[in-house]
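Supplementary Methods S3. Complex input for the flavin-adenine dinucleotide-bound model.
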Amino acid sequence: MKLTSYWLDTSEPFWGGAKGPIEGTYDVAVIGGGLTGSSAALALAKKGARVIMLEAETIGHAASGRNGAMCNNGFAQDYGVMSDKLGRETANRLYRAFDAGVDMVERLVAEEGIDCSFARVGKIKLAAKPEHYDKLARGQELLAAHVDPDTHMVRREDLASEIGSERYYGGLVYRKSAAMHVGRFVRGLAEAAARRGVAIHERTPMTGLTAAPGGGHLVDTPKGRFTAKQVLLASGISQVGPLGWIRRRVVPVGAFLIVTEPLPVDVLDRLTPRRRNAVDTKNLVNYFRTTPDNRLLFGGRARFAVSNPASDAKSGEILRAALHDVYPELRNARIDYCWGGMVDMTRDRLPRAGERNGVYYSIGYSGHGTQMSTLMGTIMAEVMEGQAALNPWKDFAWPAIPGHFGKPWFLPLVGAYYRIKDRFR
Ligand SMILES: Cc1cc2nc3c(=O)[nH]c(=O)nc-3n(C[C@H](O)[C@H](O)[C@H](O)COP(=O)(O)OP(=O)(O)OC[C@H]3O[C@@H](n4cnc5c(N)ncnc54)[C@H](O)[C@@H]3O)c2cc1C
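Predicted complex, serialized as structure tokens:
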């Protein structure tokens, strides 16, 4: 079993990196080479800006190359709850932003010719308990009436057409959702940006950021100091560089995945006839989908812990048991990959994007970000040209999380709370 991301292991490494010292002046410095940074760098370069992108590790090394590669529309949370909390108009506007995120991924794949198996397979949210089905059905009624007619319910007695498992009590299908090979997508985006002249420096952290005397920003890196007229932080849970303001607002939460050996097509036809992205309704959620080479990917929060090789392996064992619970017939399937990543969680699980002291940022997708990060990278290129109104998250305040200074000491307590909730509700 490889303790590495299947997506990064099965895509060509990024080839277009810049070499040598860094100096001079750029129009924009993008900090972070994930989906937000790569899509922003591409959009800015298309506008004719002189762009530099710094990536502390390698392209897609963090969340963007380690996720479930589900490009789902809809909220991660219940639509009814979101409308009550935000008001229907705002909830619908944000819901449509997730639709636009999936559309944006599809558009960039086509425009840039990125071979990443993008397909609108749809997502099914599976009721883990009988009463969860009723809640999903109430939510779907509201969805269909107000914002997304491309949804429908599947009752337990009809569920075999969707999934070969006795574990669930029905589900809610979102037909606009898509799946992709995210390693090929994020590296393909960065290559498209490099082809348009973006200087992409891997293994180059931003280590300092100060105001330049004549306007703009001085950016420090181990390869030298340069000036940037504008800076975009696309740096996720960043543990490197002078980003304490962000770290006090984002909680890094580990999430983990396993991938089986390639499975016979007739087995997959039985287990997941429509190849949907599947997500269950538990607080400690499980999700699964197939890969382009017919493996089953199975993920979840497993434990509230950080990701590192020992932690990933421990979580992998929990996920293996959960996989067998859903699909007993995979008891003997070999697990070829097991890895983890850190989710950039905000308190209300909604992203934050905007500008502070002349520095732009888009961060905090809270585990629902393959589509939104790609959309926001592209939108931030417009926002940085003065089109602030295009930012769907512009009105959301972002206070620091009390008691949080970057290291999430409270995660085991949160995990225990959700485990108890899953047992009793
Ligand atoms: C395990 C897991 C599963 C997930 N599954 C899904 C899913 O199925 N569907 C979905 O929609 N979303 C999912 N997500 C969320 C999704 O992956 C993220 O929302 C998205 O990738 C965020 O992209 P990003 O570019 O903002 O951040 P990141 O991918 O985290 O990129 C930030 C980059 O900034 C770099 N960086 C940080 N500090 C510095 C610095 N000082 N200088 C230079 N570079 C720096 C980092 O090295 C990193 O590469 C998942 C996330 C995880 C962790």
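The chain has one domain: 6-413. The CA atoms of residues 76 and 368 lie 7 Å apart.
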